[in-house]
Design goal:
This protein is mostly helical. It contains five helices and two strands, in the order E-E-H-H-H-H-H. The protein has a domain of 82 residues. The protein has a two-stranded antiparallel ribbon. Strand 1 and strand 2 form a beta hairpin. It is rod-shaped. Belongs to the synaptophysin/synaptobrevin family.
Length: 134
């Protein structure tokens, strides 16, 4: 939810005055989908573990139960792949929205002909990149 993050932009008309701007974008849905799927996967794994350990004879006698378990597991694997791709796309969108050149281009102060704007530092995205690779 980048729109909740404020940042200060200098106002060239008054040397000491600044304007508060907000970033644009809401990229929380992919992360929420990924976390929700992880919670449901954990809960299903706990239910399956109880079923395997406590009701082993029921699982062995019923031929439809192992097939249903297999189908649910395949669905979770597919949705995990989709969620990981969505998380990666969300990260790419956040990186694009917070790129210093994009922020500078959006500032009205930097649109003048004799104005030179540059970012002090570029953000470190190493840990964010690692979160997708893991």
């Amino acid at each position: 939810r980048l729109y909740q993050i404020p940042f200060e932009m200098p106002d060239c008309e008054g040397e000491s005055e600044t304007r508060t701007l907000h970033l644009i974008g809401d990229f929380s849905a992919p992360a929420e989908f990924f976390v929700t799927l992880g919670v449901f996967s954990f809960l299903y794994a706990m239910v399956a573990l109880v079923l395997y350990l406590r009701f082993h004879s029921l699982y062995g006698e019923n031929k439809k139960l192992p097939f249903a378990d297999f189908c649910v597991t395949v669905c979770f694997a597919f949705f995990w792949l989709v969620a990981a791709a969505a998380w990666g796309k969300g990260l790419t969108d956040v990186k694009a929205a917070t790129r210093p050149t994009s922020l500078i281009a959006a500032m009205g102060v930097c649109q003048g002909q004799d104005v030179v704007c540059n970012a002090g530092t570029t953000p470190a995205m190493g840990l964010a990149n690692i979160s997708v690779v893991r």
